[in-house]
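pasting for ref
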Amino acid sequence: MPEIKSLAAKNHSIELVRIIACLLVIMAHSQLSVVEENAIVSGRLAFSTIIADDVPLFLLVTGFFLFGRIKSDADIIPTFPYKAKSFLSRVYIPTLVYILISIFYRHFTETQLPTSSLDWDYLWRFIFRLAPGDHLWYICTYMSFIFFFPMLAFVCQDNPQKNKLRRTLLAIAIAGAVVSDIQYFFKMSMFELDKFLWGYCTIFLILGYELSLFIRKFDDRQKKLLAMGIAIYLLGFLIKFGLQNYMFSHYGYVDNKFRWLQSSLCFVTATGMFMTVYALGTWIKQNSIIARIINYIGSCTFAIYLFHMLVLNSTWNFRGMLWRNFHYTMTLPNITAYYIVNSLAVFGITLAIAIVFKYVVEKPVAKLFK
C-alpha cells in the first residue's frame, strides 16, 4: 500500500499486480473443495494452487514500495513518522470505519442474529489484540511492518554493504523455510520458521524490495522478464501441484502446507507471478486509457480488500447457482468458468462499493492528516 499519487504518476504494471491479487483473494474466499468422493479433482487443485499466491502478491507489492525513500541510514528517522502517519490515515482509520460498517450491516441484514457483544468483541480484538481472526490479519501484519520499519529499513538499502547483509539474512531465512518443508514432507518434528529470524510474511516483504531492484535491470527487456517470470512460476507450480497430490495419496492431507504461503515454494510461484504480470503490464502504453483505468481500479484495491468478504457473504446463493449451472464443477472448463464468473461479479460489486468508500472515507481522512 504505497504513497497515493496522481493516476498519471502511478506505475500501472504494479497496479495490475494489485488487481490480480484482489481477484485471487476473492477466489480464495470462495474456492471449491479440492477433494470429491475421497479423490482429488485435479482442476480444482490447480486453481487452489494458483490462488494461494494472493496475499504473497500483496506482500511483494508492499515491499516493492515501502523503502523507496531510504537511501541511507540518515533517512530512516525522518521517514518513520511519515510512514506511521500514512498508515494511520490511509489504512488503520479506514479499516476501523469498515469494521463499524460491517457490524451495522450484519445487524440490519441478519435479523436472526442481531448485533451482539461478539460484534463489538471483534472490534476490540482488532484494536487491542491485533487478532481479528479473518482477512484483516493482513492489516495487523502491515502494522507490524510499520512498527519495525527502522529495523527493516536498516537492511533495505541499495548499497554494497547493505545488499550483502540483507541477502545473507534472506538466504538463511529461506533455507530455514526449506528445512521446515523437508521436515513436513517426511512427517518429522516441525522446525518453526516464524520463531527463527524472519517469518514468512517478512521474507515476502524483503523479496518485494529485491524485486524493486531486480526489475530496474529489465526496463528495455520486457520479453526476457516475461520469459523468466513464466519459467519461474511454472517450475514452482508443478512442484507444488505434485507435492500436494503426493501428500494426499500417501498421508490423506487435503489442505497441506505446500499450497499456502507458509511454504518455501510459494516464494518461487509468487515471485514468478509478480514478474509475469509486471512484464505484461509494461506492454501497455503509459498514460493510455487502459493504463489510466488500471491505475484507477488499483487505487481502489485496498477498499476492495476490506469489503469483499461482506459481498461474498451476501452472494453465496449466487455461487450455489453457478456451481449447479456448471455441472458441479468437476471438469476444468466448468471449474474455470465458475472461478472467472464468480470473481468478476464479486469484484465488480465490491469495486462500486470501494469507489464510494474512497471518496466518502479514504480521501477525507487522508486530507485531515495531510
